[in-house]
Design goal:
Keywords: Methyltransferase, Transferase. It comes from Micromonospora jinlongensis. This is SAM-dependent methyltransferase. It is built from 8 helices and 8 strands, in the order αβαββαββαβααβααβ. It has an 8-stranded mixed sheet with strand order 1-7-8-6-5-2-3-4, sandwiched between helices. It has one domain: Vaccinia Virus protein VP39 (Rossmann fold), CATH 3.40.50. With about 250 residues, the chain is of the alpha/beta class.
Amino acid sequence: MTDLRNAEDLIAEAAAAPIDGWGFDWLAGRATEERPPWAYARLVADRMARATAALDVDTGGGEVLAEVPHPPKLLAATEGWPPNVEVARRTLRRVGATVVAVDPDGPLPFRDASFDLVVSRHPVRTDWAQTARVLRPGGTFLSQQIGAGTMRELSEAILGPLPPPAHRHPEHAAAAAEDAGLRVVDLRRATLRATFSDIGAVVWFLRKVIWTVPGFTVDRYRGQLLALHERITAEGPFTAHAQRFLIEATRP
């Protein structure tokens, strides 16, 4: 149901709301997104229970890792966005994880063959050579990633028509993993329905998920936001589709 407050109030509220961490609780009751069928958190928990040394790359605020019921003895996480580092350190104390601040474009700051499990949910990018380097022989990399054209309907509502997506195709990720010396053992895809019930939810999402509209600011796109508000008011919740894929690879 569309919020009856006016567009400027909704936009101002969302523009002032915090976006630290990688949780989406602020959107409760205002936006929804289907979950992938493979239950990534459950897969991670299963792999962690059998690992001796594990790494979570791009942990965000540590939300997924913090829910692991049986963490391995050695557990590390990396995060490249400074506001998230302290959030992750607080969140991950309960599972005994060490959080390392990293340069997103730099190498992983760990020795060769340090981990028998590396996981990553929605990484900004995957450095396949570095992933292979830090994995032990027989080790596993498990990742849920953003697929090509994710939330395209929302991107085009703000930016206008876009060319076909050139990046984040599952097949490209699998080829890159194989080129780095890994063996892909699982590759799955899912298209997930997402809805936004008011323009505030759209603004908050675009501030947080920055690749949806690169360089997004309220002032830059106010006209498009007001037009989308009118559309939601007239037609009901705005619908887009998220693309996700799961990839699992092992180091021979």
